[in-house]
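Hi R.,

Here's the chain you asked about this morning:
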Amino acid sequence: MVRIFGESPAKKKPAPKKAAAPPGEQGLLLYIHVPFCKSRCRYCSFHSQAFNQVTYAWYLKTLLMEIDIWGRRLQRPAVQTVFFGGGTPSLAPAHDLDRIMAALRQAFRLREDAEISLEANPDTVDAAYFRSLLAMGVNRLSIGVQSLADKDLALLGRTHSARQAVAAFGLARQAGFANIGLDLIWGLPGQRLRHWMDQLKTVTRLKAEHLSCYGLSLEPKTALAGMIKDQALRMPSDRELANMYVSGSEFLESQGYIQYEISNFARMGFFCRHNLGYWEGRDYLGLGPSAVSTIGPRRFTNPRYMDAYDAAVRGGFVGQDFEVLDKAAKIREMVMLALRTTKGLDLREYARASGRDLVKSNQALVQELYKNNLIRIYKGRLRLTKNGMLVSDAIIARLAP
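And the predicted structure, written out as tokens:
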């Protein structure tokens, strides 16, 4: 680990002109973290805080400074995707998002066909807001529906109703958005297969271009994890969860949605290019508190809290406390990320990078996984089956220790 951030001013070495080599001409992935929410959902472990005008104004000023720093360090690189995530990015007023977009265009070279996504919560938007987003260049929405059952939304601690979620989708479509994704969560406490299938039947009638269907993950120290631990709620059985995943995936495919990653489905031509870039191992730059970046072999994370984040930006320290990913780490990530996608791992690419034949090196394991219908090998690629995706973490841990 290289430690530069945090040195005393007297000992601090002059900052290099660049934090890393400029990304290739295919373009950089830009992620902007907006760390504000109306309230914390019971399942969420992402960094966020309650929205207030003073802290938000501080955040905006610091973010604009950080954008300028990276534009100069990386010599105004090309950008192929921008993703506003959170938190709740749609809590930011439209005129401030417009300022951020203007700063990005000044500091970076946004490609004409750049995918610009924004996450939105149903109770923070209206028709005028959506029209403003389109006008400033946002061309893809990810609406946090999570469920279309009010009972589930209350359990999750969401601040909107199912009716508001459907209404938000309609307003976005009326405003002119032609690329809308909806986020859903399955495997909730007390949920059964028929409940999940009813959700999918309802949501597919909306005809969104993209659906992200995430299995509920009980993150430590979240309210929902505490309720499960205290036995106030009970999770579905493993068999029920497996049926939800496999049956749900097959139903979505029958409705014209292509599964291209463990949790993501889209109509042809509407795969999320930003997320695909992550899974393909491309360079990405994260801006805002707690945002993570990987540029070349360097990985670094912004400070989590506003005071430390502001100090790092003002001092020019962002990106100076980095980890250098060695060859073994890069190969592990290649396996982990590729096996999340339905394309799977290119075995020839793996051999070129590692100098090893993955199948021969793990012959007994590969045979066992194949025998149990957990993997398939076709045209030089090893990929997980739907059953394999259910236990992807365990398989990846064995194949990329």
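Confidence is low (pLDDT under 50) at residues 1-21.

Let me know if you need anything else.
M.
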